Amino acid sequence: MAIDIQKYRHRALGIDPGLAATGFAIIGTFKQGGELCAYGALKTISGQSTPQRLQKIYLGVCDLMDAWQPGVIALEDVYVLDKFPNAAVQLGEVRGVLYLAAQQRGIEVFTIRPTEVKSCLTGNGRASKEQVSQAVKRLLGRREDIKPDHASDAAALALMIVSRKGYFNW
User: What does the pLDDT look like over 68-81, one tens digit per residue?
Assistant: First the structure.
């Protein structure tokens, strides 16, 4: 199926990074409003080596960037609990390949804190994932849930960046 990217004024890619699953969502904007064009998660196999898993994420996100040609990327800022220090290292590695893919294509990357997304979309910086998901659905006029949760989080990030850039208002 061919993608008609020309029908959108702007395209943004939201990314919720993770080694096991990196959520993604593409938002395309029109003169008024926008729509969720594509979403999902790039999943890796835990039994594979970290370099193999990073390569899968890198190649998957490169394919997304090449197909959709986003003008901007919103990447979730690092959030790691103190009791999981290895998660910080893994997130750093994932973010590194994401930054590389974007840099190779000349796409500007913005990082957004999870609390900022929650606050802007729900009015509460401590909102639950479900509250954020419902806000994203409402803003995009969707009836069905955006699954997996990583993709819903990525859609929230993409909405934030198109709003911040003035491409989409709610």
Answer: 999 999 999 987 66
